[in-house]
Specification:
Elements lengths: L9 E4 L2 E6 L8 E6 L5 E3 L6 H12 L10 E3 L5 H4 L2 H8 L2 E4 L4 H4 L3 H17 L8 H13 L7 E2 L5 E2 L2 E8 L8 E5 L4 E5 L25 H13 L5 E4 L8 H23 L6 H8 L8 H17 L4 E5 L2 E5 L1
Parallel strand pairs: 4-5, 5-6, 6-7, 11-12
Antiparallel strand pairs: 1-2, 2-3, 3-4, 8-9, 9-10, 10-11, 13-14
Helix pairs in contact: 7-8, 8-10, 9-10
Keywords: Hydrolase
GO molecular function: hydrolase activity
Pfam family, one: Lactamase_B
Length: about 325
């Protein structure tokens, strides 16, 4: 963030202003969107840092808006670069907060859920063959949540297909995959979509593995969800997709087709790796992402497990368990 240059808010569609906010993460700045309607609405809040707070205030000031003017905040999803300073914003503005139901335990930092969250990843990484010394990543991820976000609350939950309260032109779309709580907003009158991290021009959104909300359920197949939600959007008339990172996307169908094609290419690559003999998910991860897997383990292992899920659905992979570790073979 040291080299970040503050940009003024820009009107990217009718009544929609983009505010670029710095983050301390490798993904770079995050885009927030101010939507004019019956109620002045901010989509996402940015991470909990002083730089992000200053940028939010400066961006709003550039279009003569104060924090106190914001009447409601909608979260596209619960990742800290999008929701971290929600509570700080809520304290100043008294804004009504909205998100998908699955964002609630993260935003409200439900202790029982977060404890289950850590156990889930411990079990997942152990069965994936992750070495014991690398399991510290779970504690590191937990610290990430509590460092760049603070406990807040969600006043209203939003679900697929409903009209957005206070924004009668906008409809809620449930677009899971990158996160279980991911929502997008769609305005049919001019075919504009606020896409969050579902559709990003320069990078393919990672389909993060996340625990189920109910401990008795199996884990969600996040890559399958992501592909399905992309296909749903490809069937829609969207002239402009406003992303959570980077520039707006025009020509969404072509981009989605490229994403889906590259996705299958990686599945084919994993199938090739298994021809050499059985491997754990961690071993496959190291072969698929040799330069990234150590420093970006949660991202790359999620991607690897997602492609294993696809091969399972196609009945092209077998799995055996030995001493708590899963081994995959063709």
């Amino acid at each position: 963030m040291a080299n970040y240059v503050q940009k003024p808010a820009a009107e990217v569609a009718k009544g929609v202003f983009q505010l670029e906010i710095p983050t301390p993460f490798s993904v770079g700045p995050v885009n927030l969107y101010l939507l004019q309607g019956e109620k002045l609405t901010l989509v996402d809040a940015g991470p909990l840092t002083e730089e992000a707070w200053h940028a939010l205030n400066a961006g709003l000031e550039s279009i003569q808006v104060r924090l106190e003017d914001i009447e409601q905040v909608i979260l596209t999803h619960h990742h800290v670069d999008h929701c971290g300073q929600l509570e700080r914003l809520r304290r100043v503005s008294q804004a009504h907060t909205m998100a998908h139901p699955l964002a609630v335990p993260y935003v409200e930092m439900d202790e029982a859920f977060l404890s289950f969250h850590d156990r889930f990843f411990y079990d997942l990484y152990r069965e994936s063959g992750v070495p014991d010394e690398k399991l510290v990543i779970i504690e590191k991820y937990h610290r990430l949540i509590t460092t760049f976000a603070e406990k807040s609350r969600i006043d209203t939950v939003l679900k697929h297909g409903q009209k957005v309260p206070g924004l009668s032109e906008w409809t809620v779309l449930y677009t899971p995959g990158h996160s279980q709580s991911h929502l997008s907003l769609y305005r049919e009158t001019d075919r504009v979509m606020v896409a969050g991290d579902h559709i990003i021009k320069r990078i393919s959104s990672n389909a993060f593995i996340e625990p189920p909300r109910d401990q008795s359920q199996a884990r969600p197949l996040t890559l399958v969800q992501y592909r399905t939600a992309l296909q749903m959007c490809a069937d829609m008339e969207i002239d402009l997709a406003l992303s959570g990172h980077g520039e707006p996307v025009a020509g969404h169908r072509e981009l989605i087709l490229q994403r889906l094609q590259k996705n299958w290419e990686r599945t084919d690559r994993l199938r090739e790796l298994l021809r050499d003999g059985e491997k754990t998910a961690y071993e496959l991860n190291a072969l698929l992402f040799p330069t990234l897997y150590e420093q970006e383990l949660p991202l790359t292992l999620s991607e690897t497990l997602g492609h294993i899920d696809l091969l399972k659905i196609l009945h092209q992979v077998e799995c055996r368990e030995a001493e708590g570790v899963l081994y995959y073979s063709l």
